[in-house]
Write a structure and sequence with these properties.
By secondary structure, the chain is an alpha+beta fold. The chain has a single domain, classed as BirA Bifunctional Protein, domain 2, CATH 3.30.930.10. Helix content is 36%, strand content 20%. The chain has an eight-stranded mixed sheet with strand order 1-5-6-11-10-9-8-7. Strands 2-4-3 form a three-stranded antiparallel sheet, with no helix packed on it. α1 packs across α3. The two termini are 22 Å apart. The mean pLDDT is 96. Bound molecules: adenosine monophosphate and magnesium ion. The site of adenosine monophosphate has 16 residues, from β6, β10, β11 and α9. The site of magnesium ion (MG) has 4 residues, from β10.
């Protein structure tokens, strides 16, 4: 294929995908605004970010950092701790389109769902419970897919994408059952086995996801797994907010609480509030809607593990 033809074909798909992405972002942001969320601006550099440890699927990634004003500042892995601080400062419902940098290992290029730079729609609600968030997200997904089917007819046709509006409630699995039954490939297996998105509950991971106080060893958190092999698109949970519990979890994970700046100050004075929320990977969502197999196909400026971009 000549370079010119290649550019033309690439432009066509990326143009169509950009339309779908625009419609998706427009619908999502309107949905959050209608539900009385405050729209926060993203943070890119901070002394404090998500350790991503110990998440069974992102552990081992270290935040990049730069020195400014004589201090080390990290590039954001996610805004989870900022969301909790926003809720502690009195905001009730918040969302952010948050750019995240994660130096995924080069071999992750083959998953088709990892980029080293991507955007999350990250949201958090004061006093929300797991059940509330699952219902909220199911409503959001079902209505978003119906909206896209109606408003992106031409785009879906060009891509040959037959999108199905999911039925609710989405099926629920427990993480430990999945690992017991399928081992490490559980995500691919349940993603291929289901026609609609499914929930995975109780995943042992970072200190901020709440452990069930009545049933230690169970976690009040969730992942949303897309069908057709597209895999995880959302992670979230109820949050730990009591200092003794946070401290115990941080120390167990080998983290130093005093490294956590204002989050630490608020947490140890027990000023954090109960909340729950989640982060939705925008590129992964658009990839699913468009029915494209690699995340590079939905990034206009590709940010793929191990590949140095030219722009
Ligand atoms: P996490 O809380 O780490 O699961 O991140 C929240 C969401 O961001 C995930 O469910 C994915 O949709 C998305 N995400 C995480 N890591 C990546 C990545 N390397 N590339 C693209 N999207 C990602
Ligand atoms: Mg996750």
């Amino acid at each position: 294929m000549s370079v010119q033809i290649h550019i033309k074909e690439t432009n066509k798909v990326k143009g169509v995908v950009t339309n779908i992405q625009t419609e998706t972002l427009s619908y999502l942001t309107q949905y959050f605004l209608k539900n009385k969320f405050r729209w926060l601006l993203p943070v890119i550099l901070s002394p404090v970010t998500d350790p991503l440890w110990p998440d069974p699927r992102s552990s081992g990634i270290k935040p990049l950092s730069v020195r400014i004003y004589g201090n080390e500042m990290k590039l954001m892995h996610s805004m989870i701790l900022h969301k909790q601080v926003a809720i502690a400062l009195g905001l009730k419902r918040v969302f952010i389109l948050s750019p995240n940098i994660r130096v995924e290992p080069p071999e992750k290029i083959s998953t088709g769902r990892h980029a080293f730079e991507f955007t999350q729609l990250d949201f958090e609600i004061e006093n929300a419970t797991l059940d509330y968030i699952l219902r909220f997200v199911e409503d959001l997904f079902v209505s978003l897919i119906a909206h896209i089917k109606k408003n992106c007819v031409e785009e879906l046709e060009i891509l040959g994408r037959d999108l199905r509006v999911p039925r609710r409630p989405f099926r629920k699995y427990y993480y430990t059952d999945l690992v017991e039954e399928h081992g490490e490939s559980w995500e691919e297996i349940i993603s291929k086995d289901n026609r609609d998105p499914v929930w995975v509950l109780s995943i042992p991971r970072e200190f901020y996801d709440r452990e069930d106080p009545q049933r230690p060893g169970l976690y009040r958190n969730y992942d949303l797994i897309l069908p057709e092999g597209f895999g995880e698109v959302l992670s979230g949970g109820e949050r730990e907010y009591q200092w003794e519990r946070i401290k115990k979890r941080m120390l167990k994970d080998g983290l130093k609480p005093e490294d956590y700046g204002l989050y630490y100050d608020l947490a140890r004075k027990n000023l954090l509030r109960p909340s729950a929320g989640a982060g939705i990977g925008i590129e992964r969502l658009v990839r699913f809607i468009a029915g494209l197999r690699h995340i590079r196909d939905v990034q206009l400026f590709e940010r793929i593990p191990g590949v140095i971009p030219r722009i």
